[in-house]
Amino acid sequence: MTEPAASPDALAALAVAALPRFGIAAASPVAVIHARENVIVRVDDPASPAPWVLRIHRPGYRDAAEIRSELAWMRALADAGIATPPVRDGVDGDPVQEIEARGIGRRCVDVLGWVPGRPLADDDPDEAYHLLGRTSARIQRHAAAWRRPAGFRRPRLDVDGLVGPRAVWGDYADLPGLDPAQRALMDRAAAVVRRRLAAFGEAPDRFGLTHGDLMPDNVLIEEGVPTVIDFDDCGTGWYLYDLATLLAMRVADPDADRVRDAWLAGYRTVWPVPAEHAAEIDTLVMARMLLGLGWMHTRRDTEMAQQLTGMAIAMSAIQAEKLLAREGA
Known about the structure:
CATH superfamily of the largest domain: Aminoglycoside phosphotransferase (APH), C-terminal lobe
Largest sheet: 6 strands, antiparallel
Number of domains: 2
Number of strands: 12
Structural class: alpha+beta
Shape: globular
Radius of gyration: 20 Å
């Protein structure tokens, strides 16, 4: 899944070429503001009171049908009163346009409305995490009742989708930064994850369409209220996996229990979380961390992976030891 390097100028040129496809003046100022998975471009359209966000999708990751499915769900959530970024159609009615650019190749592009706010912070109060848990439950409850449109297609974040050679971000075992002892530790933890999640099962009270990447950068806080953005990794998985993505960055943080409890309290105002489900939170955190190691391998060309691989291995080891101690393994 490695991506050929593209200069900011080339990416900006592709964005400019895409603007008329969405009825936005090509003279609108553009700025590349983020390039981790997809490339995020801010567009200051003089005809709009607020900026637009143009996404240039990573090649080989999500195809046009998957992106249309993501956008269809976001629109359905907005129609149900759950805040998500508004989706702008192309002039031909298709929200996904394919653009060819020299030195970059063919890319899928879409345009979303700008969402004001700042990313969720470690020191945000319990109320922010409580509201985020409530929002997550509303998103998942909506998905459980929503009739998906024809052709809807998103990945499965099941055991195979999270751990092993078919994992959606890559196999943790391929990461060359793991020394033999670390690899053995991850293998033992992966075996526990597989066994426990297989036993937990995929009943509809615990498994369904969910956001799939509830990282702090994907939660924007405005006047104390969270809005969830970036549904690029949404798929069918365990509902508590969204909490696991939030906790995976906090395995060495003494504040992790506070965040977990506030999120669960908010979630339970909308949907129940039986003790049987809550018992698998640590399992899902480990699954997320193993998947993250796979990401570090398949995105090894990125600056982020190069900077964070060592820390990701160390934190994964902490969670693995915790999970194995609980199992008595």
